[in-house]
Amino acid sequence: MTEEPYRWLEAIANRREYVGEQLKSGSPVLAASLPDGVILLGVGSGQSKVFELYDRHALAGLGHPADIEKIRQAAIDAAHIEAFTRAPEDVSLRRLVGFGLSPQLKTNFEQIFSAPFLVELLLAELGPEPAQDLFFRLHYDGSFQTQLGGAVLAASQPEPEAAGQKWLKEALQGKTNRGEAAEILLQAWWCVSENKPLTDQIPPEAERKAGWREAAKGKVIEIGWLARQNARAARYQAQTISDLGL
Amino acid sequence: MSHSTPIAGDFLSLLAEHQLASARVDSASGSVVQTQATTVFAFHFAGGVLMAGDRRATAGNVIVTDRVEKIIEIDSTSLLAVAGVPATAFEMARVLQTSFEYYRRSQLQPLSLPARVRALARLLRDNLPMTMQGIGIVVPLFAGVDHAASPPKPQIYFYDPLGAQFQAVGYAASGSGSGTIRSILSFQERYGQPLPSRMNLPEAVRFASRLLSTASEFDSATGGVNPATDTFATIKVLKADGVDTITEEQQKEILRG
After folding, report:
1. pLDDT beyond 80 at B64
2. Angle CA(A118)–CA(A121)–CA(A122) in degrees, nearest 5?
3. Whole-number Å distance between alpha carbons of A97 and A164
4. B9-23, B114-128, B230-244: segment of lowest average pLDDT
5. Is B38 a catalytic residue?
6. Which residues of chain B does A80 touch, with a Cβ-Cβ cutoff of 8 Å?
7. Chain B closest CA to A128's CA: distance in Å?
8. Which end of chain B has fewer CB atoms at under 10 Å, N or C?
């Protein structure tokens, strides 16, 4: 079959369709850069969405837990080997994603006789200043986008993701409090999860606040915090919404 | 991407898989003048475990430096005190730091205290060829928080050069000045007022500084503590909820008081 180029293209297209369909119901994950650090947030069944990778690095993802786990493990392995053979300061998201995860995901996606990874990922690197916080939005096929500072959202569909990211940029403007930022991220999570518009027709704030609380009932809100000012090398802390006063 | 280490969460297995095992010498010939680091000790006090060391490293009768950090924070629940050859000891500390964090992050749970204690024993055993040749000997102390205890409690362990591990009841010391330190600690535990286990933090810091000063009177390889020349010890405190470093400024303040 693969001797015929158009068959291969068709197979790739089928894979995209299959992955898209499998990820459709995935719960979005979000991250934002704040003056004191970087917050990552996901809503799921617990310990399956937001993870520490290395001292200043964290990952949030949606998709099949087993696939997220494989990528998480690969990233942790690569980061620790890099830190041990060189130095912790040499662990960088740019190299981790650009030279490690992305090529492996692309290779896997193009091997049409093996199962594709069902993941959409968001990776964060804490910088010395908020403007140097680095985000990578990594897709199941290995393609990725980078962003310095601001907020990032990873969803299964590109349109709501783009709308959500645009809304977050404005909504988080001037916000410095971690709890306030988490509240806004949860509102964006609810809007994207429930297919609410994140444009001029966005539901009013009271509805958004009530909406995420209702939708999150029976689920676990996972929050990761990369603290900018911390005496210890490992900056990641797992937090709960009650820690943030929500 | 889908590989997993032979032992889940084991960093040394991961290094071996990538053929990156830390450099190991099985045999060596000729004599070298080794840099040595002494003296370290740990004791229980009212606030947890205090671990301290002088800052001198020597090679034969040469003082190499008076700025060595012999008390190393491995992670937020463990401290390592190194006595012996720094080249080997610092590498062991680096392996432990990476191994404990690797396990915690990859397995989503911290390594238990018994496993931490054995991890250091394993490194000492791996160093056996060097130890048997009298090169690269390390005799460390380890302190870790026992989370299986209720409430969690810091514990002290000491080792022999071959990797045997022992839990210390009240205190442990290692290095060339350890004889003096152990004698004083033993005396203080039997007859002293207050007992080390009842000392508060300033009392424990003052006591630790005096222990090192006294040891330095009898052992030229032990750097003393002298506030007049801004010479202080490295002192760290392990509590059930983390590690505190007693800075030189804090030591100066306590010794002045």
Report:
1. yes
2. 175
3. 24
4. B9-23
5. yes
6. 11, 14, 98, 101-102, 105
7. 22
8. C
Closest to A73 (Cβ–Cβ): which among B15, B95, B106? B106
B residues 50..109 contacting A (CB < 8 A): 75-76, 94-95, 98, 101-102, 105-106, 108
The answer for residues whose C-beta is within 8 angstroms of residue A83's C-beta and 6 or more apart is A54, A55, A90, A91, B98
- Compute mean pLDDT per 10 residues along chain A, 246 residues long, and list them: 77 94 95 98 89 98 96 97 95 97 96 94 97 98 97 95 95 95 97 92 95 96 96 94 93
- Residues from chain B that touch A54, judged by Cβ atoms under 8 A, are 105
Residues of A near B (Cβ–Cβ under 8 Å) read 47, 51-54, 70-71, 73-74, 76-77, 80-81, 83-85, 101, 104-105, 108, 232, 234
User: Within 13 Å of residue B74, how many CA atoms lie on the same side as its CB?
Assistant: 36
Q: What angle do CA A240, A222, A76 make, to 5 degrees?
A: 120
Q: Is A153 left (phi over 0), alpha (psi -120 to 50) or beta?
A: beta
Write the burial class of residue B225 (CB in 10 Å: 0-12 exposed, 13-18 middle, 19+ buried): buried
Facing A73 at nearest CB: one of B4, B20, B75: B4
Sheet of A144-148, strand order: A50-54, A57-63, A119-125, A134-138, A144-148
| pLDDT at position B219 over 80 | yes
DSSP H/E element including A93: helix A93-96
Any idea how long chain A is?
246
Q: A67: closest CA among A19, A32, A15, A128?
A: A19
* Res B3 pLDDT > 70: no
pLDDT at A79: 97
The whole-angstrom separation of Cα B53 and Cα B33 is: 22
- B210 alpha-carbon distance from chain centroid: 19
Amino acid letter for position A111: Q
Q: Residue A74: closest CA among chain B residues belongs to which residue?
A: B1
> How many CB pairs below 8 Å do chains A and B form together?
44
pLDDT band at B6 (very low <50, low <70, confident <90, very high): low
Report pLDDT for B60. 84
List phi, psi (to 5°) of A243.
Answer: -60, -30
Copy the structure tokens of residue A220.
Answer: 């676990």
pLDDT at B30 over 70: no
B256 touches chain A (CB under 8 A): no
Percent of chain B's residues with pLDDT above 70: 91
